[in-house]
Design goal:
The chain is an alpha+beta fold. It has a domain of 74 residues: Gyrase A, domain 2 (2-Layer Sandwich), CATH 3.30.1360. It is 62% helix and 19% strand. The protein has a four-stranded antiparallel β-sheet with strand order 1-2-4-3, with helices on one face. The N and C termini lie far apart (125 Å).
């Protein structure tokens, strides 16, 4: 094929062809840059979420320890709870004892002093007659152990200052 176009038009056509190629290259370059930017944004979001998941896993690993450590801690806590429970089981509730003593006292008896030494209880007070003292002794013997009234309590018939000791045993 013979090219009959003048040289100026040939130049013009070559220039238009170059411009088309440049615009296609620029378009491809812009497309590539847009894809690169979108890819970097996607990777940024992906890695941030990946790191957050790893941080959550690390926190969970710190909270959940090894089974051996958990078992050891559980054993220590169980032992502590057993010690606390035994402490409260051995504890004497003096309010309960005082209530029992108050129920056993005759109406004519008055207490001056109550003392507790472990499970040994000492009472001293005033009672109007020997019969009331005998009633008090019988009532105390029904609820407590080793009730002891010294012989001096039995000397007077009336207006007796008495003293007694007995032991409280927990059921």
């Amino acid at each position: 094929m013979i090219n009959l176009l003048p040289f100026s038009e040939k130049r013009e056509l070559a220039k238009v062809r170059k411009e088309k190629i440049q615009s296609i290259v620029l378009l491809l370059l812009n497309f590539f840059l847009v894809c690169l930017v979108l890819l970097s944004l996607f990777l940024n979001i992906y890695f941030k979420s990946y790191l957050e998941r790893k941080e959550v896993l690390i926190v969970n690993l710190e909270v959940f320890e090894e089974p051996e450590e958990m078992e050891e801690k559980t054993t220590k806590l169980n032992n502590s709870l057993k010690e606390i429970n035994s402490f409260y089981q051995d504890k004497i509730y003096y309010s309960f004892i005082l209530n029992q003593i108050a129920e056993k006292l005759p109406s004519e008896a008055y207490l001056d002093r109550i003392s507790f030494l472990g499970n040994k209880i000492s009472l001293s007070g005033f009672i109007s007659s020997r019969n009331d003292l005998l009633i008090l002794k019988e009532r105390l013997e029904k609820g407590f152990k080793e009730v002891d009234f010294p012989p001096i309590n039995w000397v007077k018939r009336e207006n007796i200052d008495f003293f007694t000791t007995f032991l409280y045993e927990k059921d």
